[in-house]
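Can't attach files on this board, so I'm pasting raw text. These are the components:
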Amino acid sequence: MAKGWVKDLYGKRLKELLERGEYWEIKKLMGPTGPHAIVEGKEVIMFATNNYLNLANDQRLKQAAVEAIEKYGWGPGAVWAIAGFHEILSELEKKIAEFKRTEAGIFFPTGYATNVGTIPTLVETGDLILSDQLNHGSIIDGIRLSRAEKIVYNHCDVADLEDKLRKAHGKYNKILIITDGVFSMDGDIAPLKDISKLAEEYNAIVYVDDAHGEGVLGEGRGTPAHFGVDDKIDIHMGTFSKALGSSGGMVGSDREIIEYVRNTARSWLLSTGPSPGAIAANLKALEIVMSQEGKERVRRLHENANYFRKELQSIGFNTGKSETPMIPVIIGDTKKARELAKALFDDGIFVVPIVYPMVPRGTERTRNEVSAGHTREDLDKTLAAYEKWGKKLGII
Ligand SMILES: *Cc1c(COP(=O)(O)O)cnc(C)c1O
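---
Top answer:
Structure tokens for the assembled complex are below.
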């Protein structure tokens, strides 16, 4: 039992979170994650998951997991570095390299662990990290764990990045430029062509976290492929937790870099990975995404996303700078964003309200993640509900 004052202190902090509206009321899922789901006992059309390609409940992923568990058992036993890893993990890492079009690949327990583990291995005291203003929290934490200096450049602002590169030139041992491929709150795309060109000019390392780009852009191969600059990115980071419908993180790069990361990343060395079942499911997910069927899923995803975004705009909603299936409806008011999400939920549509501090004040929104598995009927039903509630709440 905790001491009285400890309980009181954190009880008070918790209350403050509640009062500031920063407490997560976490909903219960009562079945598989798909374009439809049972949430709190209610059937809803799902826009709250990253299940872009509708693979999270795919029979082939489940089957692969079951077979691997039958063959290798459930538990990994110990951290891979000590006890060795199952041959299926080597297969997965080969597949990661094939997917990222790199020489070698490494698998991590999660995307978060990938960033907090990999970034500190690449930079040290005397180095500089140039980081996009809207980079994911796991990148920010990875930077904090490194001993390098950090300078934030304005979101997707190539001129600002160049200015900061010019000023830093010659003052540091090396410079790492780090960016999301697709940004997770706005669904806009990092200008990787310009960034990789600048990196070449200034001889900087480029690290792309493509969590929301892989399985979505570049026929599924991600943001670097979308711009045709795969071979100009030094470090290709990704996750299995979005379009790939599973969980785990990955890095693709040259063999020496991958083996160095493996031998120095603390989140790889000190943390046990997931069950062999998850490894096998990830392998299957990559196979599907790289196949003709994967390309077809990506095509359907964009067809759905483009339709949904265009219709939201024609109803009068502000979808910001989204160019991807991650579509915000920007409202600019915490209370209205929450009310809208709640009204939609009551109508059987699950979208997430995103408010300060996750996004800047004045840009409070609902976040809508379209899936290849949504039908036209799902989208139309959702659009009708958006129009009804948007008018009732005075948003449009
Ligand atoms: C989701 C996400 C992560 C974390 O990935 P997990 O596999 O969920 O740990 C990292 N970076 C970005 C940009 C993300 O969107």
